[in-house]
Amino acid sequence: MKKSEFHRIATIDIGTNGIKFKQYRIDVNKKSKIQQDTFSRVNIRLGEDVFNYGLISENTQKKLFKELSKLIESVKKRNIKWIGICATSAMRSAENGKDICERLASELNVDVRLLSGNEEAYFLKYLNTKKIVDLDNYLSIDIGGGSTELHIKHGDEEYLQSVDLGAVRLLQQKDLKEEWDKLDDFLNKIGYLKAEALVGIGGNIRSLLEISGKDKFTSLGYEEFIILQKKLENNSLDDRKKLFNLGDHRADVIVPATKIIERILNKTGIKDLYALNWSLCDAIAFDYYLKNEEAFV
User: Regarding the domain delimited by 128-277, which CATH topology (the fold level of the hierarchy) does it fall under?
Assistant: First the structure.
């Protein structure tokens, strides 16, 4: 590869609370091998259909196919070497989720991977915490719309878990006690590792840190988190939008997301919460690069 050359790849995350698209350039001559070029989000909330009716409606499917068709078309025009598309919790939970993924693959001529919960949790191992000073032993978390994934690695010990507890699922009051018990069991299992921090990805956790006014890569302490949680709970949906500059897709789900965080902090005794601007899209891109590194030399 000549110095001025690079490859483009892209990823799409068909999530429960929206669709995320990211485009990257890969240049092995740069210190940072993968650099993000483009990000866009489409606010289609699949979870409203799935958690209320058990499937994705025809109307929502039309919106989904329309928006994905636009994204795929734009990718084709940009000389993208590879595109990785994944679907997560809402598609896993929907009665017609598998069929929709197969239709998307067939009609748009792309590969669509329906991830299991554990596969989502697996991708958390790529989380890059180097910019957080002196942080070694931490619990990673990804709070999505339909599920929450956790991962911890310390020394030779490594554990991961996915539970059907997500911000949209809780908002629709479709969370089950057995999933909370499953979360508690996992936290008890890893308790001996004594994680010193909770490092989160996803829009809800990033929004919490932004609202708090914290500098990037600094932590939100437990007491600060509880105070902020109460402020969010005690304000109406409209007031949350105005006071905290939250969009429609975030203002309603951020409160249920704090319930999951609170449970984890209380069960583990962790006192510091960090947020990283990392996502499942990034992890999928990085995983692809690692598995095909020789193609970019």
Answer: Nucleotidyltransferase; domain 5 (3.30.420)
Strands 197-201 and 138-143 turn out to be: parallel
- 90-135: per-residue pLDDT in tens? 999 999 999 999 999 999 999 999 999 999 999 999 998 888 877 8
Architecture of domain 7-118+281-296: 2-Layer Sandwich (3.30)
Where along the chain do its domains lie? 7-118+281-296, 128-277
State yes or no: pLDDT of 3 exceeds 70.
Answer: no
